[in-house]
């Protein structure tokens, strides 16, 4: 893959496909991590005199404008981070986009409105997607792919557009791919993988691919209750994918045969109902129980303290750790301890630590950890997982020379 150093960009319109899919509360950005992650690439292009056209999706609008998914607040925050104005086009390929891009001078930046406001961005029809890519290509001379969180999508701006312009990878994608190679090629051992999140079915591919590669796989989050059920225990009202129990039992059997240690929780924090994460109101019926004693009607919402200690011990001697998915409902103080314990265990180890994007990255920031102390915090949870599954990612394939 070519990098931006391989491109002549001075005076040229450089289309940067970023991933600025940040969480919003109204017009307020609650986590600007993805904006900060791509800012160095944009700044480098600005310094070299490029006319930078930034584009991204945000949320899942239905192929037409939707004010609640506007990137307007992102343009403001990007300008603050870059320390320079960022013009904002109120459409993707219409009159505003054309005029805003035409007005750019060397070293100036504009952000287009949400790409998914155009149905061609996500269309499964090659012709419709290609037509949108043609319209985007008319706005630029060069393409830089730096939206790692979207490279697993076969979308117009990710997959089709690079074929229409000279292209290269941005610094963020180059870093992400380098990190993922460290997790898949000549890995420093012991190699510990910590998986959380809600559903086993979301992690089937990555678990399958990690069998025989990881030394230990630690299971938390909502998916742990399917593992607990697979061991023959009741899980009360906790999240359970009954159809995945045979799959999990097969994993446990194959892990034992292949020398991969599955570490399943010993205890769990429970409540009779889902907590109010917006207000953080106290939970009156909070309790910690062993996994073989979850009461009927109880809802498991975090790993317990014995499990947190066990996980810390299993991480302590690791040389490589990949973590994807929180251990519980970390957004509420009563159920954040498990996720906090895992994050701290990563920091306390001497391992190369990778936080696999998505909710895990959000948890690290929400819980007040210093991001710079981790080996790498990914900007793409889904993309990272698919890479670890061994899948070909369309957005990366499109950037090959």
TrEMBL record:
<feature type="binding site">
    <location>
        <position position="116"/>
    </location>
    <ligand>
        <name>substrate</name>
    </ligand>
</feature>
<keyword id="KW-0067">ATP-binding</keyword>
<dbReference type="Pfam" id="PF00162">
    <property type="entry name" value="PGK"/>
</dbReference>
<dbReference type="InterPro" id="IPR015824">
    <property type="entry name" value="Phosphoglycerate_kinase_N"/>
</dbReference>
<dbReference type="InterPro" id="IPR036043">
    <property type="entry name" value="Phosphoglycerate_kinase_sf"/>
</dbReference>
<protein>
    <recommendedName>
        <fullName>Phosphoglycerate kinase</fullName>
        <ecNumber>2.7.2.3</ecNumber>
    </recommendedName>
</protein>
<feature type="binding site">
    <location>
        <position position="153"/>
    </location>
    <ligand>
        <name>substrate</name>
    </ligand>
</feature>
<dbReference type="InterPro" id="IPR015911">
    <property type="entry name" value="Phosphoglycerate_kinase_CS"/>
</dbReference>
<comment type="similarity">
    <text>Belongs to the phosphoglycerate kinase family.</text>
</comment>
<keyword id="KW-0324">Glycolysis</keyword>
<feature type="binding site">
    <location>
        <position position="300"/>
    </location>
    <ligand>
        <name>ATP</name>
    </ligand>
</feature>
<feature type="binding site">
    <location>
        <position position="331"/>
    </location>
    <ligand>
        <name>ATP</name>
    </ligand>
</feature>
<keyword id="KW-0963">Cytoplasm</keyword>
<feature type="binding site">
    <location>
        <begin position="57"/>
        <end position="60"/>
    </location>
    <ligand>
        <name>substrate</name>
    </ligand>
</feature>
<comment type="subunit">
    <text>Monomer.</text>
</comment>
<dbReference type="InterPro" id="IPR001576">
    <property type="entry name" value="Phosphoglycerate_kinase"/>
</dbReference>
<feature type="binding site">
    <location>
        <begin position="19"/>
        <end position="21"/>
    </location>
    <ligand>
        <name>substrate</name>
    </ligand>
</feature>
<feature type="binding site">
    <location>
        <position position="203"/>
    </location>
    <ligand>
        <name>ATP</name>
    </ligand>
</feature>
<feature type="binding site">
    <location>
        <begin position="357"/>
        <end position="360"/>
    </location>
    <ligand>
        <name>ATP</name>
    </ligand>
</feature>
<keyword id="KW-0547">Nucleotide-binding</keyword>
<keyword id="KW-0418">Kinase</keyword>
<dbReference type="GO" id="GO:0016301">
    <property type="term" value="F:kinase activity"/>
</dbReference>
<keyword id="KW-0808">Transferase</keyword>
<comment type="pathway">
    <text>Carbohydrate degradation; glycolysis; pyruvate from D-glyceraldehyde 3-phosphate: step 2/5.</text>
</comment>
<feature type="binding site">
    <location>
        <position position="34"/>
    </location>
    <ligand>
        <name>substrate</name>
    </ligand>
</feature>
